[in-house]
TrEMBL record:
The active site is at D177, H218, S392. It holds the Pfam family S8_pro-domain. One of its GO terms (biological process) is peptide hormone processing. Its EC number is 3.4.21.75. Residues 468-604 form the P/Homo B domain. It catalyses: Release of mature proteins from their proproteins by cleavage of -Arg-Xaa-Yaa-Arg-|-Zaa- bonds, where Xaa can be any amino acid and Yaa is Arg or Lys. Releases albumin, complement component C3 and von Willebrand factor from their respective precursors. Residues 1-20 form the signal peptide. It comes from Hadrurus spadix. GO terms for cellular component: cytoplasm; endomembrane system; extracellular space; membrane; neuron projection. This is furin. Its cofactor is Ca(2+).
Length: 698
């Protein structure tokens, strides 16, 4: 009996981990093991402990993937005993069982739409002529629309092609996705096998797997946006039509930390730009990001890639807007090492799928409402498409423009590129959207669009005269406010940080770049929480908005939020972190820990010595600045929840289906509560971005 009790105590004292609701996925029978002693020791260890050594992880010396053949391939519970046995071996630095986690492509389901009459969109001649069949549909490269009321729009890359003879020559861009159809006639001349890999099958060929649904067309579409060949009578023209394009197949199967890390760190000595249009599930209830090896891979890329100048990681910000998601709950887009890209519709309106967050750096055009034009590109089976959508389509356009920047000035670093983006973004075509603020350094910012729309011509002009920014410093600050602090519904907690930004040390900062806030918060409903940071200069940035669908009781466990909204501001002074729950539903918890990490430079960057950024003389800054605090603007998330609930109820009562008129009627009834004196026509005209939310349900 004593032996039995001892055995039970031993079993229940062992550490174990079970995947919880917001950590969807499964444990695999693979372990990543970092070993001292090389491949011989790895083989020896695997043989002794009953593993099959799958080999050293590409790009990670002394790090091996080991497979336990006699172990279940899928499990909700980890195998703590096996992990401990590996970790306790003197030859092992660390060992970690792999978890296959959902990674979602950031396109969206095709929606039904009414066909527009031929007279609705009248093509107008574009100054730049190409014989590619979809060139007339590439309104975002050269504005070919002639629809009354639409502002002049395009990224102006043609001015770069003609004016500077810059088309991406010598620059290598790789798509991390579900594969690239590299024999496509509009991609093949630019395909670079040295920039390509299949992380799913561990071989050099990233060709996508065909199926009856063409479910693996995503990477091929993203690749075409960047590097479609010009003037070959096929599909369209890439933003950087002479750039080399590669593909990494990684999303067609289980995606573990090992899968991601090998992909992110692949050939960073050869690849200049990675484009990623995927991430954790955009369901408004997930909090997830890169794990140990993927973080290490990003650091390798920016610190060692491109000869030490750093590769550029472009990331789609996410499509969870209609579900009230916030991209600061996505650790890929909220990494300081990635350049997060949102999108705007052809009307210059924040689209229904867009996510609001403080980590978004900039935006490009993409799809919008059901009548809006989409993005043209290559498709599977040597076909073409004009139906590429979402932030999936926005990120590759940004990657293509950055290829032009790198050709213009190959000496810019990954941080220089971010400075160039901040300094050259265009606000004019987005001015009708709410939420615009101006920070103390003079930069306009918006949690929907970052610093604005990318402009290829302006970025290249900046790059041609660019002087590298000073070395970066990192300064950490602990709160003056004593923690923990209790929090409950209807209340808020203010946490104060006072810092001299490491003045007089090697870590001194005077001019800000990224600002990170790391928190440990327990709360009985995570989605009720909102977080806001106010800088010493008085700029307020929303770190987290309410997430109506997030019912997790886990809270945030050492989660890091990022804001770029304080870029260029003076560093030292008092920062105030506000954590609140405006709902009165009896939730409770507390803020256990909080820290502030400041990134920036001691010396002023050369481009800032010219004074504050000059915006267009046609932009009335005072008129477009939204003086209301962002955290008092809950309309988007509130509408999303209200529409979702009402439409779900109506769909159930109608046997599972709705038509467009029913959907529009529901939305109109919703927004008429806010604008009771407006007609339906005025509501469509003035609140088009809200109406766009409906397409998620159609």
């Amino acid at each position: 009996m004593t032996d039995l009790l001892f055995g039970l105590c031993l079993v229940f004292s062992l550490p174990y981990f079970v995947l919880l609701h917001d950590e969807i996925g499964h444990f695999t029978n693979d372990w990543v093991v970092r070993i001292q002693g090389g491949s011989y020791v790895a083989e020896q260890l695997a043989a002794e402990l009953g593993y099959h050594n799958m080999g050293e992880l590409r790009g990670f010396p002394d790090t091996y993937l080991m497979r336990k053949i006699d172990h279940p391939q899928r499990s909700r519970r980890n195998s703590a005993v096996l992990t401990r046995r590996l970790s306790d071996d003197r030859r092992v630095v660390w060992a970690e069982q792999q978890i296959a986690r959902p990674r979602e492509k950031r396109g969206y389901i095709r929606i039904k739409r009414r066909e527009l009459s031929e007279s609705h969109f009248v093509k107008k001649d574009c100054k730049y002529k190409f014989n590619d069949e979809l060139w007339p549909d590439q309104w975002y490269l050269c504005d070919t629309r002639n629809m009354e009321g639409l502002p002049k729009i395009d990224f102006n890359p043609s001015a770069v092609w003609d004016g500077f003879n810059i088309t991406g020559r010598g620059i290598v861009v790789t798509i991390m996705d579900d594969g690239v159809e590299h024999n496509h006639t509009d991609l093949q001349p630019n395909y670079d096998p040295e920039a390509s890999w299949d992380s799913n099958d561990n071989d050099p060929d990233p060709f996508p797997r065909y199926d009856e649904y063409d479910s693996n067309n995503h990477g091929t579409r993203c690749a075409g946006e960047i590097a479609m060949v010009a003037n070959n009578k096929k599909c369209g023209v890439g933003v950087a039509p002479n750039a080399k394009i590669g593909g990494i197949r990684m999303l067609d199967g289980d995606v573990s930390d090992a899968t991601e890390s090998v992909s992110i760190a692949f050939r960073t000595d050869h690849i200049d730009i990675f484009s990623a249009s995927w991430g954790p599930t955009d369901d408004g209830m997930t909090v997830d990001g890169p794990k140990r090896l993927a973080i290490e891979a990003l650091e390798k890329g920016v610190f060692q890639g491109r000869g030490g100048k750093g590769v550029i990681y472009v990331w789609a910000s996410g499509n969870g807007g209609s579900k009230g998601d916030n991209c600061n709950c996505d650790g890929y887009t909220s990494s300081i090492y990635t350049l997060s890209i949102s999108s705007a519709s052809q009307h210059g309106i924040f689209p229904w799928y867009g996510e609001r967050c403080a980590s978004t750096m900039a935006s490009t055009y993409s799809s919008g409402a059901y009548t809006d034009q989409k993005i043209s590109s290559t498709d599977l089976h040597n076909q073409c498409t004009s139906d590429h959508t979402g932030t999936s389509a926005a990120a590759p356009l940004a990657a293509g423009m950055l290829a032009l920047v790198l050709e213009a000035n190959p000496n810019v670093t990954w941080r220089d590129v971010q400075h160039i983006v901040v300094h050259s973004c265009d606000v004019n075509r987005l001015e009708k959207n709410r939420g615009w603020k101006q920070n103390a350094a003079g930069f306009m910012y918006n949690c929907r669009f970052g610093f604005g729309l990318l402009n290829a011509e302006e970025m290249v002009k900046q790059a041609l005269k660019w002087k590298n920014v000073p070395p970066k410093s990192i300064c950490q600050s602990q709160p003056k406010t004593s923690l923990p602090q209790l929090l409950k519904s209807g209340e808020s907690v203010e946490i104060v940080f006072e810092t001299d930004c490491c003045k007089g040390t090697d870590s001194e900062i005077n001019y800000l770049e990224h600002v990170q806030v790391t928190v440990d918060i327990n709360y009985t409903r995570r989605g009720a929480l909102e977080l806001y940071l106010t800088s010493p200069s008085g700029s307020t940035t929303m770190l987290l908005s309410k997430r109506a669908k997030d019912n997790s009781i886990i809270g945030f466990r050492n989660w890091t939020f990022l804001t770029v909204h304080l870029w260029g501001e003076k560093c030292s002074g008092t920062y105030k972190l506000l954590v609140r729950d405006k709902e009165g539903n009896g939730y409770h918890g507390g803020v256990n820990r909080a820290s502030l990490t400041l990134h920036g430079t001691k010396d002023m960057p050369e481009h800032m010595k010219e004074g504050k950024k000059r915006y267009s003389e046609y932009l009335d800054i005072e008129k477009i600045i939204d003086n209301s605090l962002e955290y008092d603007d809950d309309e988007t998330s509130g509408d999303s929840e209200e529409i979702s609930n009402r439409i779900d109820d109506l769909r159930d009562s109608n046997g599972g289906s709705l038509d467009w008129d029913q959907l529009v009627g529901q939305k109109l009834r919703s927004i008429q509560y806010r604008y009771p004196l407006k007609s339906e026509e005025e509501l469509f005209e003035d609140d088009q971005s809200d109406v766009n939310l409906l397409t998620d349900y159609y």
